[in-house]
Amino acid sequence: MILVTGANGMVGSYFAELSAEFPEELDLTDRDTLDVRDWPAVRSRIRDGGYSHVIHLAAETDVDRCEVEPDHAYRTNAFGTQNVALACGEADAVLVYTSTAGVFGGDGAMGPFTETDAPCPANVYGRAKLEGERAVEHLVHRYFIVRAGWMMGGGPSRDKKFVAKILAQVGSGREIMAVNDKVGSPTFARELVLGIRDLIATGRYGLYHMTNHGVVSRYDVARRIASTVGSDVSIVPVGSDRFPLPAPRADSEAMRNEQLGYLGIDRMSSWEDALDAYLAEWRTAAGPRTASAADRGVR
Fold it and tell me: Which secondary-structure segment (H or E) carries 186?
């Protein structure tokens, strides 16, 4: 059996949908059923569960909240991961830890970054996730650390990130301003889950990047969304200083899947194909109320 933490989130929701793709039964948990910050609960669950693998998704992913509440960020993303890693070490379970491209770019380097590049986070979120990586490396004998990029997925019910925000603005018909001076590599959550499945099967433990192919700005993504849904809304490129936020953002969080390529299992699609697939998934999930979305934008 495989334990999944954070299974009600953007990425975690695909584990329920794709559970038949995994060779073992999935035990799906979230904060209400397993709070990773609760060491006795984590230790007991993993020690007594007989799990072959633990896929650790649970995290605080709100970058700005992490910046203004660093104790919360470290307690969840660093200490919580330490708890899971310690328990996996004691139970001899394989740990799969989902990390982030946010561990890069704080030094102004532009990438695209590979697994051999030295991390340098730009904000509290990235530093807390990097501490989680270090806990995994030091406390678990068999592990996969999987760094994902700018996440997209979850559909209308779970997506509160960039794609959902742009879809809402496209639907309103108002001019959209999108940042063009920061770049990254998107990761479609559905493809990430299937990539994790394939990676587990190799038994080749270690550190991996898992993003869709390409380096883009938010402006590029916004233009693709508008084009795909058939909207002629005006999209204006602007600098990031137009939207001051609590957490500094790296100029680049772009990554390349070097290790997956070496193994011959890099099946991540281009960012364009991944975004198109996600928008199609969104329309299906939204149902009849967006039947004419191609003409007026997806709401």
Answer: strand 186-188
